[in-house]
C-alpha cells in the first residue's frame, strides 16, 4: 500500500466518523474492506477507483446579479473533488441502509456503493452526473464568475 492509497483509506475512516467515534469508523471501514476482499482480490485500489469515478470536476454556485439569482458553474480544486466524492459515497451508503430498513449493516451498504462506483453506477455517480448536467445547462452564466 503506497502513500496515496493509505491517505485515501484514512480519509474514508474520517468521512465515516460520526460524533468523533473514530474506533467505530475504523471497524466499519475494516469490515467494508473485508467484504470487498470476498469479491475482488485487489481491495485497496477499488476504493481509489470508486472515488475517482465519483469525483465531480465542476459545481454550481448561486450568485445574485441585479435582483436575479443565477447558478454559475465553477471548476473545483482536487481536494474539494475528493471531499465531495467521499461525502456522496457515505450519504449513498446511509441512504441505502435506511431504504433496506436496517436489515443490512453500514459496512455492507458501503461496500456495495464502492463496488458500483467504478462501474459508473450507483447513487454517488448519479449525483455527479446530475451536477455536471446542471453546470452544463448553466454554462451561459459562466461570465458572472469572479472568484
TrEMBL record:
In terms of superkingdom, the source organism counts as: Eukaryota
Q: Which UniProt keywords apply?
A: Mitochondrion, Ribonucleoprotein, Ribosomal protein, RNA-binding, rRNA-binding
Q: Fetch the InterPro entries from UniProt.
A: Ribosomal_uS7, Ribosomal_uS7_bac/org-type, Ribosomal_uS7_dom, Ribosomal_uS7_dom_sf
The keyword Oxidoreductase is assigned to this record: no
Q: Does the keyword Protease apply?
A: no
Molecular function terms from GO:
rRNA binding; structural constituent of ribosome
Q: Which GO terms describe its biological process?
A: translation
Q: Which residues form the Small ribosomal subunit protein uS7 domain?
A: 6-139
Cellular component, GO annotation: small ribosomal subunit
- SUPFAM superfamilies reported for this sequence: Ribosomal protein S7
> Which family would the database say this protein is a member of?
Belongs to the universal ribosomal protein uS7 family.
Q: What is this protein called?
A: Ribosomal protein S7
Organism name = Psilotum nudum (Whisk fern)
Q: What is the lineage of its organism?
A: Eukaryota, Viridiplantae, Streptophyta, Embryophyta, Tracheophyta
Encoding gene, per UniProt annotation: rps7
Amino acid at each position: 500500500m503506497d502513500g496515496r492509497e493509505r491517505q485515501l483509506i484514512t480519509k474514508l475512516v474520517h468521512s465515516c466518523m460520526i460524533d468523533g467515534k473514530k474506533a467505530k469508523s475504523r471497524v466499519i471501514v475494516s469490515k467494508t474492506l473485508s467484504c470487498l476482499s470476498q469479491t475482488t482480490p485487489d481491495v485497496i485500489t477499488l476504493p481509489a477507483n470508486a472515488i475517482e469515478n465519483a469525483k465531480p470536476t465542476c459545481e454550481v454556485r448561486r450568485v445574485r446579479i441585479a435582483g436575479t439569482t443565477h447558478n454559475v458553474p465553477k471548476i473545483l480544486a482536487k481536494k474539494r473533488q475528493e471531499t465531495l466524492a467521499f461525502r456522496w459515497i457515505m450519504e449513498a451508503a446511509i441512504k441505502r441502509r435506511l431504504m433496506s430498513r436496517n436489515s443490512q449493516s453500514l459496512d455492507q451498504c458501503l461496500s456495495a456503493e464502492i463496488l458500483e462506483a467504478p462501474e459508473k453506477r450507483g447513487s454517488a455517480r448519479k449525483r455527479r452526473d446530475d451536477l455536471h448536467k446542471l453546470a452544463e445547462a448553466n454554462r451561459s452564466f459562466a461570465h458572472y464568475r469572479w472568484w
